């Protein structure tokens, strides 16, 4: 009897898989499936919990690597090892037990290189070897797609290459982060820097690109420029036009008026020389990848990229949309076929009805050759009932409607508009006026109407005829050149994706174009969240600005590969070779080690030029928080992943978690607990439901809930 054990990436994914079959038993750590035609002897689904396994920290290799010292760099272990993530031992033991009992293992984690990394990292730590491994590769959690995927499991040859690719990236990112963060922090602390810097291969060049925009804005000098504007009164209405001159020198503009015998603010006669009308067709937008959806949602509702990904993930787990972390804007004919079948039902969801322009696939949207691992984000076959739609959150409804409308738009007619250009002569000086008038909404009727200000910019022009005389008044219009605007969070996603356009090296530009810039579709939003958390950037009213700490980081890394997207270009180029079997993980890690050696040699000189700034942080990250409540000599310190007593070497074992029941415990909360033994009632703890409670410190210096104080 063959025992099949399936590993999902997380519990929600496991639940979705299980619901495609008949469940025999559910426990805290696995789900047992009844036998059927897919699994004649049944199967067991278990799961990771986020990252069940992580790379060891420096002090796990050598205790002396715990302290940050320049003379210990570079920190490069001979072999890299993994450990079970803190608080996840129970699930790991359950997975290990099931793996040991299995005859066949199925990797059913997310279908990307990180999904491969999660499965094989867990497998390696369990010590289980020599068992057949199969790979589930699907783009939807719908019942039919899940069953079809498990009936057509793939071999793991490609998966193993992706694991090597992911592990090479993970180890090299660890090496750069650990060594560069310590190197730059310690050198700057010698100059009086009171905090610490976190440096990473992707996050640092991202901050640097924001810094470059900051410098462009800061160094911009607004200058006046002058044009001649005419206001024209026709029988059908008023319109404005500009002469074809734009000068910094006002006297040149005045000279042009004099040349044609014209004066400002006097009544003149103009003649409509020519009107040119063109009918234009605007095709519907391409289908959504994650990044295009993040950009649209940020522009329309000010949602952060992270918020969009989380919302899309929820919709995916509710079987309403396809795989969210996709960088593709195309679908195959298979998906197109089910979209056609459900066309009427989808229209009912949007409460709209239109006759499709065509039911044949169009290469603008349907192109199997452009689809690799994942296709575009589209609605699944599961059409939500009104009750299910009502049960969605406001954000979920907005995102689902955007995905659905963009998908339906490819079946709709083009938006048709008329573009009008009027040339008006005043004493033979020509003035140009342009306007736009929508003739047929077409696909645009599926989306919210644009703001009034945008409609006004595209306002209809009055109907005028060639040769018509119009009243004219002219004036010299003074305007000021405008600096570039700060990035919004949505634009930041696009900037990370297209940063190759900002580079000089053509080869790097091409690589970055191929790998789509900094980060991946799945990681860009978390990178933005990371640099926000590190206080390198601030976001106010959706505008991204760099902080003093971010400026100092950029001054420190200026001129190194850490400031340039070309490092990612070179990395991603070679990583792709590892994934295709043409490159070596060992070679890649060795090259990263050489890069770190160079950085250690060159940075001490370059860091002398950095101006140490006040970052607004009140103290060093590892300054004492409070006196230890247990021992007479120790202080409670930030130990990175927890809070602990500084006298641990003398035997004090007092530690406090950084998270308790889903809530982050701040330094102030820990200080209050140490000094007062009790906090006020705090909100935001998570159990089966969200709850509020005070915290107390018991006799063993353990944190306890105190619900009595809620009363």
TrEMBL record:
Signal peptide range: none
SUPFAM superfamilies registered for this protein in UniProt: Prokaryotic type I DNA topoisomerase (SSF56712)
Stored Pfam families: Topoisom_bac, Toprim, Toprim_Crpt
Record domain Topo IA-type catalytic: where: 159-600
Keywords: DNA-binding, Isomerase, Magnesium, Metal-binding, Topoisomerase
Swiss-Prot/TrEMBL catalytic activity: ATP-independent breakage of single-stranded DNA, followed by passage and rejoining
Record-listed E.C. numbers: 5.6.2.1
Highest taxon, organism lineage: Bacteria
CDD domains in the cross-refs: TOP1Ac (cd00186), TOPRIM_TopoIA_TopoIII (cd03362)
Entry-linked Gene3D superfamilies: 3.40.50.140, Topoisomerase I, domain 2, Topoisomerase I, domain 3, Topoisomerase I, domain 4
Top enzyme class: isomerase
Gene Ontology biological process: DNA recombination; DNA repair; DNA topological change
One Gene Ontology MF term: DNA topoisomerase type I (single strand cut, ATP-independent) activity
Any single Gene Ontology cellular-component annotation: cytoplasmic replication fork
Family that this chain belongs to: Belongs to the type IA topoisomerase family.
UniProt xrefs under NCBIfam families: topB
The name this protein goes by in its record: DNA topoisomerase
């Amino acid at each position: 009897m063959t025992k099949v054990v399936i590993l999902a990436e997380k519990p929600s994914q496991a639940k979705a898989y299980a619901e495609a079959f008949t469940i025999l038993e559910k426990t805290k750590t696995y789900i047992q499936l009844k036998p059927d035609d897919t699994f004649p002897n049944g199967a067991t689904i278990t799961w990771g919990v986020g990252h069940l396994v992580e790379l060891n920290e420096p002090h796990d290799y050598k205790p002396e690597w715990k302290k940050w010292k320049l003379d210990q760099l570079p920190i490069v272990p001979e072999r890299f090892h993994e450990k079970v993530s803190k608080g996840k031992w129970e699930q790991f033991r359950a997975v290990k037990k099931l793996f040991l009992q299995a005859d066949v293992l199925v990797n059913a984690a997310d279908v990307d290189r990180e999904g491969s990394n999660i499965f094989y990292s867990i497998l390696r730590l369990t010590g289980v070897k020599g068992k057949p491994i199969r790979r589930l590769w699907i783009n939807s959690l719908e019942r039919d797609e899940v069953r079809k995927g498990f009936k057509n499991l793939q071999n793991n040859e490609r998966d193993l290459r992706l694991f090597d690719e992911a592990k090479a990236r993970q180890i090299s990112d660890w090496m750069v982060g650990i060594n560069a963060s310590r190197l730059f922090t310690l050198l700057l602390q010698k100059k009086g820097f009171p905090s610490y810097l976190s440096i990473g291969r992707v996050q640092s060049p991202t901050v640097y690109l924001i810094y470059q925009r900051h410098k462009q804005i800061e160094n911009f000098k607004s200058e006046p420029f002058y044009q001649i504007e005419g206001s024209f009164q026709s029988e059908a209405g008023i319109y404005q036009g500009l002469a074809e001159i734009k000068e910094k020198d006002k006297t040149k503009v005045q000279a042009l008026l004099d040349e044609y015998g014209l004066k400002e603010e006097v009544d003149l006669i103009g003649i409509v020389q020519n009107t040119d009308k063109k009918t234009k067709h605007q095709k519907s937008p391409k289908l959504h990848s994650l990044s295009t959806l993040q950009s649209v949602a940020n522009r329309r509702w000010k949602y952060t990229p992270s918020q969009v990904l989380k919302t899309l993930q929820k919709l995916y787990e509710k079987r309403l949309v396809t795989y969210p972390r996709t960088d593709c804007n195309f679908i195959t004919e298979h998906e197109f076929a089910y979209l056609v079948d459900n066309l009427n039902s989808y229209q009912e969801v949007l409460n709209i009805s239109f006759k499709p322009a065509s039911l044949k696939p169009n290469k603008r949207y349907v192109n199997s050759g452009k689809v690799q691992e994942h296709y575009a984000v589209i609605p699944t076959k599961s059409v939500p009932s009104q009750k299910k739609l009502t049960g969605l959150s406001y954000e979920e409804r907005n995102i689902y409607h955007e995905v659905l409308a963009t998908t339906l738009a490819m079946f709709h007619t083009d938006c048709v508009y008329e573009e009008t250009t009027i040339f008006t002569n005043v004493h033979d000086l020509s003035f140009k006026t342009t306007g736009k008038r929508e003739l047929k909404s077409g696909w645009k009727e599926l989306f919210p109407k644009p703001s009034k200000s945008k409609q006004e910019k595209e306002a209809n022009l009055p109907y005028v005829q060639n040769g018509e005389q119009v009243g004219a008044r002219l004036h010299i219009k003074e305007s000021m050149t405008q600096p570039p605007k700060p990035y919004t969070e949505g634009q930041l996603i696009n900037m990370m994706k297209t940063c190759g356009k900002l580079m000089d090296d053509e080869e790097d530009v091409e690589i970055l174009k191929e790998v789509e810039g900094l980060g991946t579709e799945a990681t860009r939003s978390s990178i933005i969240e990371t640099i926000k958390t590190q206080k390198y950037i601030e976001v106010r009213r959706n505008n991204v600005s760099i902080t003093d700490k971010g400026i100092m980081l950029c001054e420190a890394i200026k001129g190194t590969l850490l400031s340039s997207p070309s490092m990612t270009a070179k990395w991603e180029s070679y990583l792709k070779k590892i994934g295709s079997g043409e490159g070596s993980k060992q070679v890649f890690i060795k090259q990263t080690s050489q890069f770190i050696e160079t950085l250690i040699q060159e940075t001490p000189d370059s860091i002398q030029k950095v101006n140490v700034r006040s970052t607004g942080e009140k103290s060093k990250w590892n300054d004492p928080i409070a006196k230890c409540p247990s021992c007479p000599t120790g202080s409670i310190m930030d130990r990175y992943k927890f809070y602990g007593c500084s006298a641990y070497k003398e035997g004090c074992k007092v530690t406090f978690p950084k998270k308790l029941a889903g809530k982050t415990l701040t330094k102030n909360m820990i200080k209050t607990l140490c000094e007062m033994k009790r906090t006020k009632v705090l909100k935001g703890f998570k159990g089966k439901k969200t709850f509020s409670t005070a915290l107390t410190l018991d006799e063993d210096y353990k944190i306890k809930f105190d619900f009595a104080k809620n009363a």
